[in-house]
## 1
Amino acid sequence: MPKRKTKPTQRGNRYQALLEKIFFDHYKPGATEVVFEREEFVAAAKKLKVKLPKNLGDAVYSVRYRIAMPARVIATQTEGREWVIVGQGRSRYAFRLAKVSRILPNENLVTIKIPEATPEIISAYALSDEQALLAKVRYNRLIDVFLGLSACSLQSHLRTSVKDIGQIEVDEVYVGVDRDGRQYVIPVQAKGGNDKLGAVQTEQDIAFCRDKFPELICRPISAQFMADDLIALFELTIEDDEIKIVDEVHYRLVPADQISREELAAYRARKTRG
């Protein structure tokens, strides 16, 4: 009896199958960059006999933040480096072998309680973890608290194009000013549930700031829900081609009467940030 061929959808996620096919259509041993066009998903889906995603960009998004890179692709990585997918212009991408970069909350960091100011109706009808997180950050003015300046939301889910990258989406953009008149642009990346904070998105956010707001100081922020609705905020930067954490604070939003006198005294005793 002939051996039955295993369909890609049975081997794992179809996005992984498509990206694996595209990668090895171009990859040569020792390569550090593998360029491909978005339209290649069409041919790959036909060849593998899998359903073509309605949103081709979602395959790239998923492997950046939700699912692992295909195992065969990972097997070609070198020590200390990993494959990431970056934009390279309109409908053009590249697998790039980059230094390993992880943006993970420090589980041992102290928690700061903040009086909850999110309207209950917003909490009741938020449609996703990401939307709920952005709303909580906005209504509780956590960007102001975290950075120590006055900031206002300029636009959420901003879709735009950046030179040499192509189309990107910024989860939310704030602009702000400090006591000395310095003005800032603050791109916020928000992740909830099992989504991972991504170094690639941070790089894109920084490139967006340089392209669209060159006169403002860019301070990229990442926000993530942790267990028990704990919110981790990171300020990030690029140093030696790696994403580095400048600062990290964990906030828990609670009713005002759940912040004890002892906790307030402890906050007063702490050294002022910044």
## 2
Amino acid sequence: MANDAVAGKSLRVAPAQPEASDAPLRDVLAAFTADLIKSVDDTLAGFLAAEVDALARIDAAMGAFAATARDSVLAGGKRVRPTFAYWGWRGAVGGAEPLSSVLPAFAALELLHTFALVHDDVMDASDTRRGRPTVHRAVAARHVAAGHTGDPDRFGEAVAVLIGDLCMVWADRLLSHATVAPARLFDVRRCYDQMRVETIAGQYLDMLGENDAAHWSLDRALRVARYKTASYTVQRPLLFGACLAGFAADTSLIAAYTRYGWAVGEAFQLCDDLLGVYGDPAATGKPAGDDLRTGKPTALLLLARQLATPSQRQALERAGTVTEPHEVARLAELVVATGAVARIERMISDRVAEALDALDSASVDPTARTALTGLATAATTRRA
């Protein structure tokens, strides 16, 4: 399903623009890699069309099920993980290698991401994702509209679990479409599997924190950021790209990608913590203040409690019990007053600086270095 740009020796790469960090992240990603996002989307669309048709032949009811899974994958998204994987690969091989052989592997990361999102929405009982009903809510609504018996919410959650599972299987299947030298396959698969294990570990810690918030710590919140977000968003995709390029044994490059990935990935999650309280729902696709409504022990909220005066700390204990918009807004203002927002912003800046220093410690293709420098800023100053 590769387009003409992919079939050639390399993708067309646009120069970085100084104002890139002010644009929506998807636009910035497209600016640094003019053709990659479209190529990933085209690869996914072609692959999923065949998969949906195959499932529909099993039973007519499977067509709607498979289409829901397909639509979850193709419903927007910034394609952050394929982009970082691409630059991990490009940073190792330079601009002369054709992309067509490894493009399915990059696209597979988006299927893995959908698996994580669909399951995460069930675990968080989320109503919206990217401005649309989450999978389990949409399926429950169709259950009611069809007049089916049984609990529609329970049915929606069960189907969403299956859709997430299907996306993980699809990710494996699409990964197998990549043409990789047999000598590299072990390293590629080992990196991919470790990414999946760390994603699940981070998700478990995230759930545990929500159910043990009184005993949670800033250190553990940052550990969640590292394993739930940094690992499978930035660090492992970069290493995945390096493995696809045959550079798994390049200790200098692997160390640089690891440092960069941890730093940018953690900053990415800290940015998410801010967006979870102060983000514009029109941009984020989720209600503002959700983390305060639930009392989720994010680094932001834990820092606010650490920095708060006794009276502020007492007021912050209401996080997780407020429901009215004005109450949420008042708590959000209080978090700012403690100095926690400013501290989180410094932590983000420090991690971006750490990431850029890491890039200077290894031999990385100059174009990839430019892109990764810009992406470090764009991924951590975004509005969604």
## 3
Amino acid sequence: MTNTELSSIVNTDPEKPANPRPIVSIGTGGIVTDAHLPAYRMAGYKVAGCFDLNGAKAAQVAKDWGIERSFDKLDELIAFGEEQGAIFDVAVPASEIAGIIRQLPEKSGVLIQKPMGESIGEAQTILKTCRDKKLTAGINFQLRRAPFMVAAKQMIDAGLLGDIHDVEMRVVCQTPWNLWSFLFEKERMEVNYHSIHYIDAVRFFLGDPQAVYSKTMKHPKMMELAQTRSAIIMDYGDVVRANISTNHGHDYAPDEQECFFKIEGTKGAIKIQIGVILNYPKGSVDKFRYVLDDGKGWQELDISGSWFPEAFMGPMGGLQKKMEDPDYAFANSIEDAYKTMCVVEACYGSSANGATKVDYGF
């Protein structure tokens, strides 16, 4: 199959509502200015207001991004958002999510930056609150919405790879964790704030695993962080292998770093280099390579857009479409995201409970 022939199958344009609602942002941190606001501008969505506990910061973000109103009081932002019929875009520390959504008007639309709380208990509280208040809610697991992931899913759904039997995510990089000072206070770090993306992506392709095997650990040069490396096996039975391996402490040369997501089937395979993770924050290029059982060998497909910021258009567009049509299948629904949190919780449980001891007796 040629790339030209693939064009009839692959369409990575993000979903968009017919009549977009305005957006109000709760939180104006780096993820908002680096990803949310650029993505919404690209999609043509209007951001009408923003709030931050640091009012001066909110005011500066509003000025920089042409946002009409900024607020340093949450109740005022919420009242403004309700008047505007806006979507609430919540990007705050995970431990603060539950307290914020309790204050939102009933039947509002809300998109919540991942993770869905710091633990399964907090995730359950968030889910219950959304149900009680009849919120149309989603969690911003945006890697599944990256153009290269969308393309891979469309190729798989078209049957081009046959039966999927092997999925692998590998990260070997030097991550500058000092850019996110709040992470140094977390008891759960690497899986909850990074590998959670990959767990969610594997679920996007394979569905829900029946079990997990996991070990998450420190790095001797980063002992002040709870964990920075993880090895995760997601159990899908005796045929399908799904592995996630992350090492955020490889500081021996940028050109030896790796970040790829690989999917193998009975008729072909896809290997995606995720460039944003490499030599972060400078980043590198994305690469989408595939091979099919047609004798043409490995080929490269040019995919427009990346994880940051393009993938952030998808969850917001999907949520807005869900607000327009309650029957629309919203891929980032809070119910689906809760299942990702269940897998994360199982990973921590597996890591804490230890491995099977090896019996060296005779």
